[in-house]
Amino acid sequence: MTAAEPLLRVQGICKRFPGVQALQDAGVEVVPGEVHVLLGENGAGKSTLVKILCGQYAADSGSVVLAGRTIRPASPLEAEREGLVMIHQEFNLVPGLTVAENLFLAHEPTRVGLIDGEAIRRESRYLLGRLRSDVDPDTPVANLSVAEQQLVEIARALRQRARLVVMDEPTAALSDAESGALFDVIRSLCRDGVPVIYISHRMKDIFAIGDRVTVMRDGRTVGTREVRRTDVGELISLMVGRTIAEQIPKREVAIGEVVLQVERLARSRTLPPVSLSVRSGEILGVAGLMGSGRTELARAIFGADPADSGTVRVAGRTVVGGAPAASIAAGLGFITEDRKRQGLVLQRPVVENITLTILDEITRLGVLDLGAERSQARALVDRLRIRTASLDQETVNLSGGNQQKVVLARWLAAGCRVLIFDEPTRGIDVAAKAEIYELIGELVSQGVAVVLISSEMPELLGLADRVAVMHEGELQGILERADATQERIMQLALGQGVA
């Protein structure tokens, strides 16, 4: 399908930030009507490349040719005028305005000097109709689901007469059904001749929607493949420069005494009574569909959400009913699924994020011992191989995988006996996932008890010693490793029987 003349040809792009060569001779070619996947590890340069394309950064060298004409957009607005529209993972919508007002913000049609509200609503209905959406244009964006907000962003791209659309991790917060609906919209765009550059870490997305895939590594373009003529193994090898076994390694360790004991823990309307236990050196996986109550269970165990009844004991010490500080003091840590909003102070440096849980230990006579703080942080940065320019780099500037390692470093500093991981590999690349798996293996070999919540079945089947399955807030059963098949887990996740 690549015989068509490229609509977009990006060649020889170089970009350097202070202390970092972000791109070196990077490029991509996109033909009309295709879904072109941009793939690579966190930090490979994907985001920098598309930000140059869409006017957020200026390249140091290289060229961007659109429809045979060289362009150098100096801002996102200039890029949009050229027909290059980027839909970010975090949407650029105004929650307090309606759908129609967001679609035509700063481009409102007027009539006798006044904004023509009826024309805005009429055009909005037309644009949303093209996407087979029945969202009311008068609905405030704050009342929309994530999937509906995404459709509004795409509708805005249609209003701007986009010639090419860039989508950054568009299914990261969508269910499988919502992802399928989005794919239908993307195919509709492509049938109209509008190509899509699609950035994703999800291999199943790539093979479901992609036509071609360009792989980046260390700021360079290392290869382009037709999706139907490649496989997961080849793409992983291109991404990381080495082969990663598809089977997730399971480290065999001695299982000790019960460290975490949860008895009839309940929270009104969100969590019926749940009881479970985890032993030292054990990984208890927690499976369930979206909305099954997995995160609610984790937050209740940790004390982030107060339970109405029940008990939680860590090494015999009761912690439920207290604040998270009581859980931390007892040796219980919680690595949240939303690291950006709940797990990190993004605008603070790496060193401060790592040592948040041990400030009492590194304070002398009421004064923070900066030397001890940096020493502790440096040891963990080295141990976890966190890629950062320095301990003082703002955490917001790290890749997703390295941000996740900073969160993990904080709990390692605290010396936790029990760690709850909620979707630890969401939004990170294949190589970073392998490092997280290795670290979890190291933890259990040291006697740490791990609760692993994951939506990725291979993670649970590969790592867990037992799998607890939830459905609509209720624990359906706990499967031993030998009995935990994908079919049995899904049966329980759908509420079809008890283990």
Explain what this protein looks like in three dimensions.
The protein has 499 residues and is α/β, with parallel strands linked by helices. It folds into 2 domains: 8-240, P-loop containing nucleotide triphosphate hydrolases (Rossmann fold), CATH 3.40.50; 258-493, P-loop containing nucleotide triphosphate hydrolases (Rossmann fold, 3-Layer(aba) Sandwich). The chain has 17 helices and 24 strands. The longest helix is centred in the middle third of the chain and has 16 residues, at 176-191.
Keywords:
2 domains; 26% strand; 17 helices; Rossmann fold; single chain; 499 residues; six-stranded mixed sheet; alpha/beta
Lateral arrangement of strands in the main beta sheet: 6-9-10-3-11-12
Rg, nearest Å: 24 Å
Q: What percent of the residues sit in helical stretches (DSSP H or I)? A: 25-40%
CATH H-level superfamily title of the largest domain? P-loop containing nucleotide triphosphate hydrolases
At CATH level 2, the architecture of the largest domain is: 3-Layer(aba) Sandwich
Number of strands: 24
Percentage beta strand: 25-35%
Distance between the termini: 49 Å
